[in-house]
């Protein structure tokens, strides 16, 4: 595949417009939800003074983490020089920007004062990992835009590799920063761990990879472009490894906590008797999000596309479940103010905090997904991100017919 | 009442009249002029004697009245700058109550994590939120070990001019900075002394002659979550 031909998607079919309409509706619903929350104040959501970050943050962190992982394909091509991934690099970069934009939109729209976004751009406290992340996120978008430009502009192609390597390094730092938002929270027993940084990197590889495979399958199917079995086999196997990596770091995190007497309470809560959080962990995160996809990715043939796509959907559902348990469950567990004492107050001290997601929160989060996918759909029509063919060998008609 | 008593009372009245302005002057002299910056030569703090704290909530009521954070009857989302916490020892069943508020740490995690610098610590140790640059991200609430901060979840009415609040921003105990800067003491401490059990002392931790410093030097005290090494400005005794 020495000469890769890229072409915009046609974007005139009924299906394309239906997709845009659906995504547009999602975005509109998200914006309406944000307006409703800001107009009334956050008391209309499920969030409280105990659960200060709610469902919008589940979606926002999920999307932001997935964004850096969506750059996988480009990184494998640029950093590790794997030729089969090279044709995927443009789509990979596009998806990374779109997912980050969607996640950041949710994060900003959930602020108490989203109108003060400019303040976040003009006032910085450089001891805050949050402030660092503002630079890491905007820098990532700028960097990937440059990377895409180098790839799209023939004269600049030669520079795309070093920029790609730099983007790879940046994305690792970025996800370290995202994980450290929680890792640096000394007071909360569910967080406060250095392992959260690599855990978040593993999560990004897995969630971003799953979204990438799904978008790739959908785009190739929707535009009738061939997609080779060999390429898909590589992608699904890699995806399986990423799912395993997440499980590994999750296990390390929990095992470390279980070893510490002071943290056995929070572990018991999350893993054993935490009700909805325990169920979401074991059924959502572990069974649906990890075990089933692993079975699928390591047993399915590359031709079984529906099954592979299903596995990716399971990874994403499991990822959302994981974010929910981590974020909401982690906050629901009370902070240890007086070890050895039962604590109670009119402000939730010593008690498991109650939380149930409200409709506006879910809509705002889904709106972020809408923003990300709408950006991808529009960009695919505007610029040549997608190769004309991703067949294993372009002259092999078998792969073409098989993929159409 | 004989003549001697009348003379005695008269003398006392005259003495009080003569001395009172002087005492008031001392208070004023200790107060900071509005144009003078807060200074690191002082560190304001509280000492709470848990053995004296009973089941009254004079401090909470006084704070609410002083700073106008009366809620909407929704405990999960209403602000609480100070709250009464009940502790029951798991082994012995011994029950205690104490007030909990912003601990005005020397190394406050809320200030560390705030992306815009809206969370800040004054030179004299009082930890505050600049309502003008708080964007309402709530990261400080995630970081505070004492759950001392509240998010303003809905519209606020009847604000006090000395304690501005704003929907969508975070707030917490200000140590009644408006009173302290005028040479006074926090409303909670005043109420505890008048209507409560005299369990709270306010003062300058750096002034060896202050009551708070002397009492802290005399008997053992503790910080909540001392393991975090935050060097809190609020100290407790007899927990």
Give your account of this protein's structure:
Chain A has a domain at 6-239 and 359-403: Formate dehydrogenase/DMSO reductase fold (Up-down Bundle), CATH 1.20.1630. Chain A has a two-stranded antiparallel ribbon. Chain A is mainly alpha-helical. Residues 395-404 of chain A have low confidence and may be disordered. Chain A contains 14 helices and 3 strands. In chain A, helix 2 runs parallel beside helix 13, helix 3 (72-78) crosses helix 7 and helix 8 (196-223) runs antiparallel to helix 12. With 239 residues, chain B is α+β, with helices and mostly antiparallel strands. Chain B has 2 domains: 1-30; 44-237, Alpha-Beta Plaits (2-Layer Sandwich). Helix content of chain B is 28%, strand content 17%. Chain B has 7 helices and 9 strands. In chain B, the strands form 4 sheets. In chain B, strands 8-1-9 form a 3-stranded mixed beta sheet. In chain B, strand 2 (82-89) and strand 3 (95-101) form a beta hairpin. In chain B, helix 2 crosses helix 6 (187-194). The model of chain B has no long low-confidence stretch (mean pLDDT 91). Classes of the chains: A mainly alpha (404), B alpha+beta (239). Chains A and B meet through helix 5, helix 6 and strand 2 of A and strand 2, helix 3, helix 4 and strand 6 of B.
